[in-house]
Amino acid sequence: MSREYIYPAFGRFWHWAQSFLILFLALTGFEIHGSLRFFGYEQAVRFHNFAAWSFLVLIAFAIFWHFTTDEWRQYVPTWENLKAQAEYYLFGIFQDAPHPTQKSRQRKLNPLQKIVYAGLKLFVLPLVWISGLLYMFYRYPQRYDVLALDVTALQPIAFAHTLGAFALLCFLVAHLYLTTTGHTLTSNLKAMVTGWEEMHGDETHSAAEPALAPAEDAAAQPAGPAR
Amino acid sequence: MKKIFLALIGLAVAASLVVTAVRRTDAGPKPIEALRQTYRAKAKPSVDHGLFTQLKGPFARPQQVTAACISCHNGRHTEVMASSHWNWERIEYVEGKGIRAIGKKNVLNNFCIGVAGSQQSCDKCHAGYGWADSSFDFKDPLNVDCLACHDNGGTYAKKIGGAGMPADGLDLALVAQKVGRPQRTNCGTCHAFGGGGNNVKHGDLDMAQFDTTRDVDVHLGTDGADMSCVDCHTAEKHQMLGKAYSLSSMNRNRVACERCHGAVPHEDELLNQHGYKVSCQTCHIPEYAKVNATKMRWDWSTAGKLKDGKPYEEEDGQGNHAYMSIKGTFTWAKNVRPEYVWFNGTASHHLLGEKFDPGKPLVLNTLYGQYDEPDAKIVPVKVHRAKQIYDTKNLTLIQPKLFSAAPGDGGYWGDFDWKAAAAAGMKEVGLPFSGSYGFAETEMNWPLNHMVAPKGKSVTCEECHVREGGRLASVGGFYMPGRDRSRLLDGLGTLLLLGSFAGVVVHGGARFWFWRRRQGGK
Q1: Is the predicted pLDDT of residue B456 greater than 60, yes or no?
Q2: What's the CA angle centered on A32, arms A31 and A37, to 5 degrees?
Q3: Chain A residues lying within 8 Å of B8, measured CB to CB
Q4: Domain that holds residue B120
Q5: Which pLDDT belongs to residue A212?
Q6: Which residue from A210, B204, B325, B491 has the fewest beta carbons nearer than 10 Å?
Q7: Angle, nearest 10°, between helix axes A111-119 and A82-90?
Q8: What totals of helices (H) and strands (E) does chain A contain, helices first?
Q9: Which residues of A touch B18 (CB under 8 A)?
Q10: Residue B276 is nearest to which of A143, A169, A173, comparing CB atoms?
Q11: For B351-486, where are the alpha helices, taking DSSP H only?
């Protein structure tokens, strides 16, 4: 058994800040939507707007980080091992079968995660923040003559924003559950907190073990500061 | 570990940013404070009218007072004679009807219906002397009543049923020596008593406002700005700013809150943005008729019941007239939550002689406006509903003659004969009466502008941004967060979310079951 540093510091900070922001935005957002009462409408709007701006700042930093560190390559969807991963969640997991994908610093995501997270980053989150910005900057008809922003009704904006919110919530439920599918119920959670994942021998001997990432990719990765 | 520590510091910084953004500090005096100071300072009159020999009197006739006024203020009477306080009509463009001279003179309402045939009584509130019938000379400057608006001594009054003449036994010289800028009581004597009693018509104009607290009215409250009507309803050459949409139809000459408070009066930009589509009054007049009740419904069809051949009155529990033989049945209400409509500043009026469909309520003054019009905003209104007399054959509203100077003159309040009253009234306005009458449902919209509540009592966000039963529940044409949603999306979204949970339970349950079986096998 060995330890491997999977999640670097900024990635963890980004992950946790984002998760708290999304939870907070969901809470305040669904209060604004009229689904629940918690802070009171006025505070809910205030908090939601502030959290939204915080989220946008975080996203800006995260995008910068993804590109400067080449981290974005981790999210490029692949067919490789996809079927094995799906079969693992459908069947293998119940029989205590080994994980078909081995985690490493260069491959923190399994093929299913790659697809889901890429969809999240490319479609769901942009849907939410673009509709959110339109929501904030929506100006009533014909005011200020800003024709570029002359959306005739708030309704489609609100629809898109709510749609994104539901999608994020569903993701959250599945995501939280899937954190329990590591070697132990909490090992994935621990790794996302500390950055270090326990590597298990049985896994390294897995028949479905994929080839390691090409050497030049590995070279492109900075060696985490704490290593 | 160091990384966790750094992450925690990051979160702490973010949290303190939240707190800083939410907490606001006040810097310097706000514009509202400057306004308060401006209006608290009361102007002192520059002259003492008590010292003018022209006003020593004695005055046998009120017209002599007017002559004395004009002898110094020469030409001012022509200004009054060009105003709607004198003419009781003005030229208005009514959408779909063209340019018309309309006003109290010829537009029907659903309170005392109209002045025609009853001038003797109604014209108590005319800014003139002696308008008893259609023979009144609107060109005679001596008939201008300066005192009604300018008496500052509080002793002037007009005679009941006296066609605008002063009450008997007044010392007109004393009144004339104490004239000045109009006070709350000068305006309120008529504007708070429209419709035949205190606070009957508007609901937000009550004699209680002559001396009230800022809780009732922040502007008029003596413990608040202590303003007078003419501080907002300013006049240039006796043309008062402000209008009532019971009679007006054009978007002009309105008193706007923004004149003093500006277009962006709130510190919170989000509240300022509401001002694009929501009038100030919508949030700042949460209720009206805060001291005395106002009339909400007037059913003329029950009028005319007599006891021992004599008219009588009945009161409701709160001391308001519930029934009067001369007027019918009333419903009153206090602390009323307004109704809300889109309004772009233009209105239409049902004009004398127009046909209508008695099958549905007739709106006497339609307020125009919808969400996507640049000038339209949501405004609070008092809606007064009534059943009033109409011609069942000609399908027109009837102008009945109400006031009766002598038995047999057709005046309903003396003879209690609707047919005679209708015939006399319609003759007065020059319209046919078929001889058969009924009672039709009518509605009037009274935009609310007074009884502005103190800041802390404004309408709160939740009162409108709520799924059901909000103040704006029936105001349509736009999407309001908190009230509106797509039922389909919410339904599917909830289903998807529940499905996700179900998936977790099934998958997790299966894992647990297989794990238990493996444990058992070992």
Answers
A1: yes
A2: 25
A3: none
A4: 89-125+181-459
A5: 37
A6: B491
A7: 100
A8: 9, 2
A9: 47, 50-51, 54
A10: A143
A11: 412-415, 418-429
Q: Does B517 touch chain A (CB under 8 A)?
A: no
Of the candidates A20, A155, A166, which has its C-beta nearest B479's C-beta? A155
Tokens representing residue B322 in the block: 């519930």
Distance of CA B243 to the CA centre of its chain: 10
The β-bridge partners of B99 are B93
What CA–CA distance (Å, rounded) separates B292 from A200? 82
Interatomic CA distance for residues A100 and A91, integer angstroms? 12
Residues of B (447-476) whose Cβ lies below 8 Å from A? 460-462, 465-467
Q: Are B466 and A152 a contacting pair at CB < 8 A?
A: no
Closest CA to B378 of B463, B291, B478: B478
Question: Cis link prior to B58 (omega < 30° from 0)?
Answer: yes
Q: List C-alpha distances in Å: A14 to A44, A189, B4, B410.
A: 24, 15, 12, 87
Contacts of B6 in chain A (CB under 8 A): 9, 13
What pLDDT, in 10s, does the model give residues B300-309? 999 999 999 9
Partners of A159 on chain B (C-beta within 8 Å) are 486, 489
Which residues contact residue A52 at a Cβ distance below 8 angstroms, ignoring those fewer than 6 apart? A25, A129, A132, A136
Interface touch A40/B461, C-beta < 8 Å: yes
Dihedral sign for Cα atoms in the order B84, B88, B93, B99: negative
Domain ranges across chain A: 2-109+170-220
Q: How many CB atoms lie under 10 A from the CB of residue B375? A: 12
- Euclidean distance between CA atoms A135 and B273, whole angstroms: 13
Q: How many domains does chain B have?
A: 1
| Residue A104 in tokens | 């490493």
Identify the CA nearest to B422 among candidates B408, B407, B412, B414. Answer: B412
Helix (H) or strand (E) segment spanning residue B149: helix B147-150
ipTM field: 0.83
Cβ distance A166 to B497 less than 8 Å, yes or no, reads: yes
Name which of B11, B482, B518 is nearest A34 (Cβ-Cβ).
Answer: B482
**Range with lowest mean pLDDT among A83-97, B377-391, B410-424:** A83-97
Q: What H or E segment, with its residue span, contains residue B383?
A: strand B377-391
β partners of residue B443: B363, B385
Lowest mean pLDDT among A190-204, B277-291, B335-349, B430-444: A190-204
Label residue A225 by pLDDT band (50, 70, 90).
very low
Indicate if the pLDDT at residue A215 is higher than 50. Answer: no
Q: CB B10 to CB A17 under 8 A?
A: yes
Token code pair at residue B517: 């079986």
The strand pair at B396-397 and B362-363 is best described as unpaired
B445: β partners: B383
Q: How far apart are CA B477 and CA A163, in angstroms?
A: 22
